[in-house]
Amino acid sequence: MNTSSSALATAAAGDSSSSRRSNRWKYEVFLSFRGEETRTRLTDHLLIALRKAGIDTFIDYKLKKGENIQRELDREIEGSRIAVVVFSKSYAESRWCLRELSKIMREGKVVCPIFYDVDPSQVSNQSGSFGEAFQKHEKDEDPNEVEQWRRDLMSCADLSGRNLKTTADGREGVFIQNVVGDIIALTKTRDLQTSQSNTLLEYLPPTQMIQLSYSSKSRTSTQDPEREDNLSLAMPTILTLKDHSSWMVASNKNQLIIMIFNNE
């Protein structure tokens, strides 16, 4: 997995092992999967491997009987730092799974898609078993919700992920080790970014808004005095980081902008 491209949706972070989570996150990982197909196979094995690695993971059997399932699932998604979505052949048959996915995408989570006996193109284009499932949804479900499911599947499938068929010759044990390694790398990356940003934010007035953006190269823009969001770089502050990238701090009216530049 290319962790930089899979982390298109952002989240805050904490330290390592059981203390890795910041106060914001209840879980490191939320597992979204179709239970009938993968619960006792890949998903269960992945859950065990994640916990052995010290990654606190939510799985739906933690829900108590009698709870409002949709509301509780939404709450657990909100309280999780990373979402691992296990796409299997029957994933799209479940309204619960599709609603989980929509919530995950709406919350802007770091998403790690896993393709289990299904091709990413089938997920993105809703073809094959996914197409068959949507034929039924179009008859039975709200058309606006169905359209949102389609968009979310396309967005998630386009992220860099792991495909069991093309990873480690389909060996599930090696595949799971790779997925766990990806997630550990993601948490460490988010931890580093948060540590760096927190160091800077300690010196900023709490009333100022912080916007973080990433660019592979610095860019110049023509200032438009009539635009309220015009960025002034007259007196930028450059801080070089250990990973050879830089922070550029500039202000525009009441807003503080922090940009990260890759110096490679």
SSE arrangement:
Blueprint: H1 3-6, E1 27-32, H2 35-52, E2 57-58, H3 69-78, E3 80-87, H4 95-106, E4 110-115, H5 120-125, H6 129-140, H7 143-157, E5 162-163, H8 172-201, E6 209-215, E7 232-240, E8 245-252, E9 255-262
Parallel strand pairs: 1-2, 1-3, 3-4, 4-5, 6-9
Antiparallel strand pairs: 7-8, 8-9
Helix pairs in contact: 2-8, 3-4, 4-7
What features would you describe in this structure?
The protein is an alpha/beta fold and 264 residues long. The chain folds into two domains: 3-191, Rossmann fold (3-Layer(aba) Sandwich); 204-262, no CATH class. It contains eight helices and nine strands. Strands 2-1-3-4-5 form a five-stranded parallel beta sheet, sandwiched between helices. A four-stranded mixed beta sheet has the order 6-9-8-7, with no helix packed on it. α2 crosses α8 (172-201) and α3 (69-78) runs parallel beside α4 (95-106). The longest helix is centred in the C-terminal third of the chain and has 30 residues, at 172-201. The chain starts with a helix and ends with a strand. It catalyses: NAD(+) + H2O = ADP-D-ribose + nicotinamide + H(+).
